[in-house]
Amino acid sequence: MNKNEIRKIKIDERSKLQKDFALNASKKICGTITALDIYEAADVILGYYSTRNEVYLDTLFKDAIEKGKKVYLPKVISKTEMRFFRYEKAEDLAPGSFGIMEPCTEESFEVTDSEERNVLMIVPGVAFDSEGNRLGYGGGYYDRYIEKLIESTVKYSTVMAAYGMQKVEHIPVVDTDIRPDMIVSEI
After folding, report:
1. pTM (2 decimals)?
2. Which H or E element spans position 45?
3. How would you write the pLDDT of the chain (187 residues) with one tens digit per residue?
4. How far are the Cα atoms of 6, 72, 107, 177 from residue 103, in angstroms, in the given order?
5. Cα 179 to the chain's mean position, in Å?
6. How far is Cα 163 from Cα 126, in angstroms, rounded to an integer?
7. Antiparallel, parallel or unpaired: β 118-123 and 44-46
8. How far apart are CA 186 and CA 39, in angstroms?
């Protein structure tokens, strides 16, 4: 199957997940992530606000904020650019590009800051395979942003949060596709 075929199937399957299952699985996934050394070491969390039944990260955000970590969520700036803005509470969000809730705050995370930081980026996705490849929505926003992190001096790690049902046998990849450092699911 090609990427678009996998996307269509997995988005459809994920949309049919029962809400109770999605919330319980999301809590397990968040619990696993918050127990990781890379989470404990991070002072900055770059996350996403769930849409289309993606893994819900609310419990992780709550934990991070309570521990004094700064949480930033993405905002689409143009067809090729995404930036991260500070998130502290649901009131910080408003509908943005693609109908996804985005921060309406002014404070942004800049990879060019010289301040030394430990960053954990939690990425969404449509599917993953046993080789650690991630299939996103096709816009390349996360791959381009991770490329900026790679080119910076920021110490970072990437984790894909995904349900076990998102696993597929094989995802075709191209040179611009960047694997997350880790994939965390409920199974």
Report:
1. 0.94
2. strand 44-46
3. 999 999 999 999 999 999 999 999 999 999 999 999 999 999 999 999 999 899 999 999 999 999 999 999 999 999 899 999 999 998 989 998 778 899 999 999 988 765 668 999 999 999 999 999 999 999 999 999 999 999 888 899 999 999 999 999 999 999 999 999 999 999 9
4. 30, 8, 10, 26
5. 12
6. 10
7. parallel
8. 17
- Which has the closest alpha carbon to 42: 67, 15, 76, 20? 67
Q: The tokens of 110 are what?
A: 């800049």
∠ CA 138-14-23, nearest 5°, is: 120
Tell the burial category of 31 from Cβ atoms under 10 Å away from its Cβ (0-12, 13-18, 19+): middle
